[in-house]
Design brief:
three-stranded antiparallel beta sheet; 3 helices; two-stranded antiparallel sheet; alpha+beta
Length: 137
């Protein structure tokens, strides 16, 4: 991302972080694009209006900066990892399906962060570029 656009996104973050810090239940495992050929493994965070409002605010702010709107429906989740070589893996598919409704506890969401993702043959490296605290609970 060019430096000017990056600065604009960073400047927009405080206007997005207008929800109070919240707690969300982490429930269920899944994969994008699907459990049969996973690329990204995730744990769900369903049923959180605050999480959804936060995502909608990010989308609106980015569209206002000229980025295209997200075409996919928002799926509240925590990314657990990436699959290096996406292919059918029956054991992984069964494990994801077996934990589709399992509760893993709760997570305190206290900030939103702009992250950079650098993909390489040895794996992904994530760098936090701009953390912005949410409003006090």
């Amino acid at each position: 991302m060019e430096e000017t656009r990056l600065a604009d996104v960073v400047a927009a973050l405080p206007h997005v972080a207008t929800v109070s810090a919240f707690e969300v239940e982490i429930r269920g495992l899944g994969a994008f694009p699907n459990p049969g050929r996973p690329r990204v493994l995730w744990a769900g965070a369903p049923g959180s209006p605050a999480f959804t409002r936060l995502a909608e605010g990010v989308d609106r702010a980015l569209v206002a900066l000229g980025f295209p709107p997200e075409g996919r429906e928002f799926t509240p989740h925590v990314t657990l990892g990436r699959v290096r070589e996406p292919r059918r893996n029956d054991a992984l598919t069964e494990a994801l399906e077996a934990a589709a409704a399992r509760s893993f506890g709760t997570l305190q969401v206290q900030r939103v962060s702009l992250m950079r993702s650098d993909l390489s043959p040895s794996g992904a490296r994530y760098t936090e570029l701009a953390p912005v605290p949410l409003l006090p609970a």
